[in-house]
Design brief:
Pfam family, one: Acyl-CoA_dh_N
Organism: Microtetraspora glauca
Cofactor: FAD
Keywords: FAD, Flavoprotein, Oxidoreductase, Transit peptide
Number of helices: 11
Radius of gyration: 22 Å
Family: Belongs to the acyl-CoA dehydrogenase family.
Length: about 400
């Protein structure tokens, strides 16, 4: 008769102390491994240089590689999309952001904003025209909601779409501006949300349309390895069928933001993992006072705290992913994940920076890059204040921001 004492203890992985890997299927691990392998080959050796130069060279070639990998709109069904699970998509986001938040942002905007908007709200013609090319990385999309003066309050947007003529087949004319738009300057198609006489509506805008321009935003100190732009719509004329046929109001764009926020709550843990791993390795190699700094109690306390928060955030992401795959997620549950995981990821990066000392601000290590990137991730797709109030409303039944 054998007992538990007769079985050898499983080997502990310092990067997965709780054994979360045991909760993943072989297919999920394969997805994660494939994304990690591509990132290691095509992104990791170069991303610090991209960040320093404030550029993402070869973005079209990289997007095609990501399309070949199958991660663009990978959680959508049909039209050339992979139809993978929410957990598989989340793991892909984690690996992408472990390389850089800008890379995950490229994939999120393509798949969870632009493609999802067309997939969920577009006409059959919109889907057939754009989704297969976007899934393959042959066409790049962007998502125009945020405006220069209206971020957390999209209902006050000033971008306007009006009919030019009478009847259902009259053209649309769009005027306005959008701000902080990922992929904008390289996009082939923009999903643009505008006020109409019928409320907020979404439009599929080929970026070659006269009157459309996308000036590049420069002087960023965060998400530097990412294309960020303004969208300018100056009398953009679109055919009658450029509009999403059914959806009205903010439920359209907010449904897309919920998809993107789900990817973020996974991705933030990728940035946190990268910073934690760098700090852990550094603590065993850097010696002071005659021994590695990892041998001092204060350093071990920092590493233990980072490990706990990384574990908790990853488990929360996995739980929300399993729930999304089984019964679906409410927006408040996504807010819970985004608020917690981005905040904790920032704390992990800042703590890792202290372990690396002066080297923590060098691009020879990934920590300061992740820390700067997460300052953008903290406020895009909903500021921490807005997610806090979403949770507060769910708890009390009172909307504090209306």
């Amino acid at each position: 008769m054998t007992s538990a004492h007769d079985n050898p203890r499983p080997t502990l992985d310092p990067m997965d102390l709780a054994g979360i890997d045991d909760l993943l299927s072989d297919e999920e691990k394969d997805v994660r491994g494939a994304v990690r392998e591509v990132c290691a080959a095509l992104v990791d050796p170069y991303v610090a240089e991209w960040f320093e130069s404030g550029d993402l060279p070869g973005i079209r070639e990289l997007t095609k590689e990501l399309g070949t990998l199958g991660v663009l709109g990978m959680h959508l069904d049909g039209y050339g999309c992979a139809g993978m699970s929410a957990v598989a998509y989340g793991l892909a986001c984690l690996e992408l952001e472990a390389s850089d938040s800008g890379l995950r942002s490229l994939v999120s905007v393509q798949g969870s904003l632009a493609m999802f908007a067309i997939w969920r709200h577009g006409s059959e013609e919109h889907k057939r025209e754009w989704l297969p090319r976007m899934a393959a990385g042959e066409a790049i999309g962007c998502f125009g909601l945020t405006e220069p003066d209206h971020g957390s309050d999209p209902g006050s947007m000033r971008t306007r779409a009006r009919r030019d003529g009478t009847g259902e087949r009259a053209d649309w004319i769009l005027d306005g501006a959008k701000m902080w738009i990922t992929n904008g300057s390289v996009a082939d198609v923009a999903v643009v949300w505008a006020q109409t006489d019928e409320g907020v509506r979404g439009f599929v805008v080929p970026t070659g349309t006269p009157g459309f321009s996308a000036p590049l935003i420069k002087h960023k100190l965060s998400l530097r390895a990412s294309v960020t732009s303004e969208l300018v719509l100056d009398g953009v004329r679109l055919p009658h069928d450029a509009v999403f046929p059914e959806v009205r109001g903010l439920k359209g764009p907010l449904s897309c933001l919920n998809e993107a926020r789900y990817g973020i709550l996974w991705g933030a843990m990728g940035a946190a993992r990268s910073a934690f791993q760098a700090a852990l390795e550094y603590s065993t190699q850097r010696s002071q006072f005659g021994r590695p700094i990892g041998g001092f109690q204060l350093t071990q306390a920092k590493l233990a705290d980072m490990c706990v928060e990384l574990t908790n955030g990853t488990l929360l992401a996995l739980h929300l992913g399993r729930r999304k795959d089984s019964v679906g997620l409410r927006p408040e549950q996504v807010s819970l994940g985004k608020l917690n995981n981005v905040n904790k990821a920032l704390e992990i990066c800042r703590t890792a920076r202290t372990i690396l000392g002066a080297n923590g601000i060098s691009l020879e290590y990934p920590v300061i890059r992740h820390m700067n990137n997460l300052e953008s991730v903290l406020t895009y797709e909903g500021t921490p204040e807005m997610h806090t109030l979403m949770i507060g409303q769910a708890l009390t039944g009172h909307a504090a921001f209306r």
